[in-house]
Amino acid sequence: MDTSVVPVNSTSTPVGSPAAPPALSGLGLFTVLLTAALPLIDFFIVNVALPTIGADLAASEAVLELVVAGYGLAYAVLLVLGGRLGDLFGRRRLFLGGMAAFGLTSLACGLAPDAWTLVAARVAQGASAAAMLPQVLATIQATTSGARRARAMGLYGATAGLAMVAGQILGGVLVAADVAGTGWRSVFLVNVPVVVVGLVLAARYVPETRSSHPEPVDGLGTVLLAVSLLTLLAPLTEGRAAGWPLWTWLSLAAFPFVAAGFYAVERRADRRGRTPLVPPSLFASVSLRRGLVLLVPFGIGFSGFMFVIAVALQRGAGLGPVAAGLALAPMAVAFFIVSLAGPRLVARYGTRVVPVGSVLQGIGVALMAWAAWRSWPDLGLVELLPGAAVAGAGQALQLPVVLRIVLSEVPAARAGVGSGVTITTQQSALALGVATLGTLFLSLIPGLGMRDALVTTLLVQLAGIVVTGLLSLRLPRTTG
Question: Across residues 463-471, what is the average pLDDT?
Fold first, then answer.
């Protein structure tokens, strides 16, 4: 008998109590959402700060790539482990520890005296985020139910999407403001007071939960998952800047074999009633399986676009960091407004809003590609406004709903590993987006010029949106 499969009615309980888990209060939900925004903001906030960082620290393009990739790789590789540790030792405990570490590593980034110190601090910051963020979804899953859970998951999805857009805008504003002469360092230092506030609120308003059936850490599975993600993401994120040396090709060639080994080890452990890091039985859920597949092209297109537009507006259109960031403000505003209406639309139309969102996002990207073709190099807020607003509205009808679908059938006792798998998929897709669409764009510039490279990359993203829309037709009709 496979004892690794936890019954759907299992619950996570507060530490030291057999009673049902306490409800997450309004302030508790605000706290976890506030801190959930930080890791996502920090993935994008450096995009508009990279030119300034490079000039100030005399960093090469390859090292600057590591400032972005080091954070993303550590974050993606350790997320599932962070979720499992929360299930085992208590989610609030991991949440508080990860948040404190995130604040300290943000301070280290802001005070870094040279480029390699910054890279090391970014890797540590990514690891801290991996301990903190899975606890957010797991805590929501374990302390809410019914309409409250649906509302909380909708707010989480809205927060995640808004954070990804707002990160780039905030980065531009902070770099240009040069607060107390800190320049680019303020994009990291700004995290410190937010973390202090978050720690105070979390200690009081976030309840402690852990799995009612704690599962020990799967050491071999953890190593194999880490190696699998590294063999895929490391060469893709560093290959172009490093000139595609031999190690990048060997790493990519090794990926399918390591990934197959990871799956075989996890499947064997699952069948023998042990506790694999990522139980294959978890993917018996149609909602989780199809939702995760949908997150991949969505994340690739989203992060690739954000990276490419930041480079194009600053290097090609000659905009400063503030103007480049604010050019995306219509996307953030539209995302926020439509996210507020999202729960009502989902209640009435179900998951049919997701393919509608794909259509709107596709129209928005097409409008931005047309604006770039027609107006280059005079490309800014006014020219991008119609397309950015429509694309933002479309994204708001997709991301919050898909995240809600993915976790709708995950047992509360496995909330940590479920949220870890979900965020790992999302984060890996974000890293792949920068690696693939970013590499395509930068590779096309010498031959086509900045305008045509931008338009071509946006059209490739448009093809990805079509794939997302087709996949969304296979989602369950309700969000669970």
Answer: 91
